[in-house]
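User: Here's a protein and a ligand (adenosine-5'-triphosphate). What would the complex look like?
Assistant: Let me lay out the input and then the predicted complex.
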Amino acid sequence: MRITDETGKLFYVGGVVRDELLGRESFDVDIVFEGNAIEHCSKFGEVVRVNPDFGTVRVNVEGVEIDFASTRSETYPRAGHLPVVDKIGCSLKEDVLRRDFTVNALAKSVKTGEIVDYSGGLNDIRAGLLRVLHDGSFIDDPTRIIRALKFSVRFGFVLEENTRRLQEEYLANINYDTCYKRIKKEIMETFNLNSQEAFERFYDEGIYKLVSPVAIERPEVNVPEIVAAVGVQVPWMVYVGGMDLSRLELTKQEQRVLNDFETLKNTPLDDDFEIYKAFDGTAPETLALYAVWAERRPVERYLQIKDIKISITGDDLLSLGIKPSKQYAEIFDAVLKEKLKNPLMSKDEEVRFLLTL
Ligand code: ATP
């Protein structure tokens, strides 16, 4: 993609600058214009979308969609809720200083390639430190505590001392009147990294209290191992499903995973047959949730026996002269129970067995 700038007012900002300095690939490119981006940047290509409230414009530049933002300053009239835009077209400095961490507050001039660092972000990148830009940062926006966990897991960074103290202070005095939609988004992004370190720190540092004040003990299990064994593709719920998620506005499907988990907790799992019947057809997320937050052993057993299937069908029973009725299910269950004890049973052996019933 080719963007040229003669004004010196166009800057790459945030993650893309950080990622380049870290030698990592960036997935989205944020560009700000010090001034009104809608007026200045629409000329770079075909305008896809404009948002005058935020001063942003999405432009298709040679087949790549790029978001250009006007520099803007923000304030938080209600702590924990979305900020309001104070001024569109403020100075670059004001724009970067509203951001979450110094490592995300770097800008790079499109014209000269020079890095603009108003907050010591370059030093913090070198030292591997996550540092907030002011002491009220977590009060303004507690989602930053989860973002810190996410970035520290992704980059191997640690919280700078004062930032750690501010996190502890906030977690000792949480404002539950907050925007949980954003908390949910950060929780999803953090735990979809599938990281044991994130799991341990989330509970051990008390970060989970952002979601629910009810005390919870972290299970001593390796979650990524369970996620891999069960084959969960999108694992975030496995990491947090043991606690009260009612503040997170779950989708129907997410709620179903939790409900199924609750039902399983009250289902006897004392032998292979009970385990098979309880877990058969259960979503992988629910299975993994059970393994992490209830008991691992029955899930491991289920994974060993889940491919055992009986061969006889309704047609076989019919040809043996057994009339279709509720009895069919009982017969299938009895054969399955036997086959779980003797997985190598052939179809003939199944038939012989059912005739003894
Ligand atoms: P990545 O996309 O690689 O996860 P990113 O840093 O680009 O990382 P985004 O969530 O896309 O993360 O945010 C883009 C930029 O917006 C950040 O780099 C940061 O400067 C700013 N930002 C995002 N969320 C917040 C927040 N909650 N508070 C303050 N600034 C934020």
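Summary: The chain has 18 helices and eleven strands.
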